[in-house]
Design a protein that fits this description.
The chain has 191 residues and is mainly alpha-helical. Helices cover 76% and strands 0% of the residues. It has eleven helices and no strands.
């Protein structure tokens, strides 16, 4: 096993134990072994996010995007972080880029709709929500994404097991499927 693989295993072990400071350390060690691995930067960014270090999280997501500029999910991940930091305009631009790279990404359409709604552009938001639902239905998904629940933060805060929430956030920022599953989870939680 390479040093990089050993460091990644340690980082993931600490991350799963919600020891994010240690996870950052081991992801950093893995990055020293491979400075071109966008996924390592994305993973470390998520650990920074859990530590409340949003600027470092954004910096890591920026680096992941620089390493994989044609990967639409890197734009979506950065959009998520930009929105968390209050940069709604930047988040919108990132989701729009993600959609240009992958026009069939239902999650990106849905998330852009959430931001358009946040900006008071409800007609545009509803169009994006409807298109996201259509894309999901066309892909065989039985549950449309639908609108974002109005009180997502209350649902997150009511989660009793923080390690599950941590796993969800990590999945949300590091995989498209994880984000789609998260949206389905939130939507069902509000029915």
């Amino acid at each position: 096993m390479s040093n990089k693989d050993t460091y990644i295993q340690k980082a993931e072990k600490y991350y799963e134990a919600a020891k994010h400071k240690e996870a950052v350390y081991w992801y950093s060690r893995a990055i020293t072994e491979d400075m071109k691995d966008a996924e390592l930067f994305a993973q470390r960014g998520v650990a920074h996010y859990h530590l409340g270090d949003l600027p470092s999280a954004l910096a890591d997501l920026n680096t992941a995007l620089e390493l994989e500029p044609q990967n639409p999910y890197r734009h979506s991940s950065r959009a998520y972080m930009r929105d968390a930091m209050g940069d709604t305009a930047g988040a919108i631009a990132d989701y729009e880029k993600a959609i240009r790279l992958d026009p069939d990404d239902a999650v990106a359409h849905n998330n852009l709709g959430m931001l358009e709604e946040k900006m008071g552009r409800n007609q545009k938001a509803q169009t994006l929500f409807a298109f996201a639902d259509k894309l999901m239905a066309d892909s065989g998904q039985t549950e449309p994404i639908g609108e974002r629940p109005k009180n997502i933060q209350a649902e997150i805060n009511s989660t009793r097991r923080e390690e599950n929430l941590g796993s969800v956030v990590k999945s949300v920022l590091t995989s498209r499927k994880g984000f789609a599953n998260f949206l389905t989870f939130v939507r069902k939680g509000f029915k």
